[in-house]
Specification:
Blueprint (H helix, E strand, L loop, with lengths): L1 E7 L2 E7 L6 H8 L9 E5 L8 E6 L5 E2 L3 H13 L8 E5 L2 E8 L4 E5 L4 E4 L2 E3 L8 E5 L2 E9 L3 E6 L5 H16 L9 E9 L2 E8 L3 E3 L3 H13 L2
Parallel strand pairs: 2-3, 4-6, 13-14
Antiparallel strand pairs: 1-2, 3-4, 4-5, 6-7, 7-8, 9-10, 9-12, 11-12, 12-13, 14-15, 15-16
């Protein structure tokens, strides 16, 4: 089994060239830093079918399959470039969460991925229009949060934090992230973003990823949180 290991903003992924299905146990072992190679996820490069599009399967380190991953897709696009499978024209990558358009820029220095449209949820109903997402209160360990749901091909839940230090926000992500991820209102679990609004042009996130836990960065989480912040004004 051939593999490549990449990182994007601290997110590490293995890219595996194989048409052999991976089991959840195999994924967990490969991602384990002590007993495997160590990674935040695995990208399986599937053989190209007749549509001439690139197809990828994305795995979380717990063995579950993810619909999309922003950093994972950037890595996969760069892998295609490194393998001389794409040039500098836009190309399409098909994921479980839908097809995305990617492009290599500046002779490989940058990768652009069009993640798609964000869907918001108001009173449990998805909306792409001008309606502002409705806050959903949730109480955990005696503390109440307001959640904002968003979907960009994979599920997200944005928690807007009060003014607090970055360290306190990080501690909250570790404490409440797994509780929100596995809350009963999310039957397929959810990614969680704890967002501090620093000023009208900057937000800061602490991210708890579904199936991965606390992570240094997440492309789809950044898209979802920025979209919610923009929608709320």
């Amino acid at each position: 089994m051939n593999f490549h290991k990449y990182q994007a903003l601290g997110n590490t992924y293995l890219v595996i060239e194989s048409d052999i299905p991976l089991t959840a146990a195999m994924v967990r072992t490969l991602c384990d830093v002590n007993y495997g190679i160590g990674a935040d996820g695995i990208l399986v490069d599937l053989p190209q079918p007749e549509d001439d599009l690139f197809h990828v399967v994305i795995y979380n380190p717990d063995g579950s399959e993810a619909e999309k991953s922003g950093n994972g897709l950037r890595i996969f696009a760069r892998y295609l470039w490194d393998e001389l499978l794409v040039a500098d024209e836009p190309f399409t990558i098909v994921t479980k969460g839908g097809a995305v358009t990617a492009q290599i820029l500046d002779n490989g220095r940058f990768v652009h991925v069009e993640m798609g449209q964000v869907s918001f949820f108001a009173n449990g109903i998805s909306t792409n229009g001008s309606h502002v997402s409705t806050a959903e209160p949730i109480t955990l360990n005696g503390r109440t949060f307001e959640l904002y749901r968003a979907d960009i091909g994979n599920p997200h839940c944005v928690v807007i934090l009060d003014d607090m230090s970055a360290e306190t926000a990080r501690q909250m992500a570790h404490e409440y992230g797994p509780l929100i991820e596995n809350d009963g209102r999310f039957p397929n679990r959810t990614n969680v973003q704890f967002m501090r609004i620093l000023d009208p042009n900057h937000i800061q996130l602490e991210i708890w990823e579904r199936g991965a836990g606390y992570t240094l960065a997440s492309g789809s989480s950044s898209c979802a949180a920025a979209a919610v912040a923009h929608r709320l004004g």
